[in-house]
UniProtKB/TrEMBL annotation:
One of its GO terms (molecular function) is methyltransferase activity. Keywords: Coiled coil, Methyltransferase, S-adenosyl-L-methionine, Transferase. InterPro entries: Methyltransf_25 (IPR041698), SAM-dependent_MTases_sf (IPR029063). GO terms for biological process: methylation. It comes from Janthinobacterium lividum. This is Class I SAM-dependent methyltransferase. Residues 51-148 form the Methyltransferase domain. Pfam families: Methyltransf_25 (PF13649).
């Protein structure tokens, strides 16, 4: 899907329905969020980035674990919905919302500023072309703080707007130099994986393994 069509598609989608994938109603979605959150290697994060935040349902939960969170989406309407969701949950004070196209709008980190210790790709990377995905992975690695984590969680079944298979998306992260997979959770419906530039397990990081 070309970039301009992609933007129009998501804008129209969220204008027609504030919850197009029923992420607030389906047990499948609630359970998937719970698994993702429980899988995070750290209890708290200083500075996180969530591109493709949609209407903000996962964003609210990430905000509760982060000192600072930048949440971004291609759709202005999705960001409006996310802002309202964060305000309703009283989690908006430390969250920055931004309209980003990937990879070109990837956040620039000024010299001396803190890198991201958590980057979350949830149901977004399969919309990217192989070239776009390669650049996103490069940006992710360059923006990752020491000991930070990159999360990818994606629906596995084919659908019309998909450009890359979930298996291929995750393989690009897995094959990237400098990343170590610290978690893989595979189900019929979705694949959840986490990589870090620190190969130690959670127990090893806490010094008892």
């Amino acid at each position: 899907m070309p970039d301009d069509q992609r933007g129009s598609y998501f804008e129209q989608l969220y204008r027609q329905d504030a919850d197009p994938w029923l992420v607030r109603q389906r047990w499948y979605e609630e359970r998937k969020r719970a698994l993702l959150l429980a899988s995070l290697p750290q209890q708290r994060y200083r500075n996180a980035y969530e591109p493709g935040c949609g209407n903000g349902e996962l964003t609210v939960e990430l905000a509760r674990r982060c000192e600072r969170l930048m949440a971004a989406d291609l759709s202005a309407e999705a960001l409006r919905l996310a802002r309202q969701r964060l305000q309703d949950a009283e989690q908006d004070a430390h969250v920055t919302l931004a309209q980003h196209r990937l990879p070109q709008d990837w956040p620039r980190i000024p010299p001396g500023a803190g890198k991201f210790d958590l980057i979350v790709f949830s149901e977004i990377a399969y919309y990217l072309s192989p070239e776009e995905l390669a650049r996103v992975v490069e940006h992710s690695i360059a923006s990752l703080a020491p000991g930070g984590s990159i999360v990818a969680c994606h629906w596995r079944a084919p659908f019309a707007q998909r450009i890359i298979s979930t298996v291929r998306v995750h393989a690009v992260f897995q094959d990237a130099h400098g990343l170590h997979r610290v978690l893989r959770h595979e189900e019929t419906d979705f694949l959840l994986e986490i990589w870090s530039n620190d190969a130690r397990s959670v127990a090893q990081r806490e010094g008892f393994a």
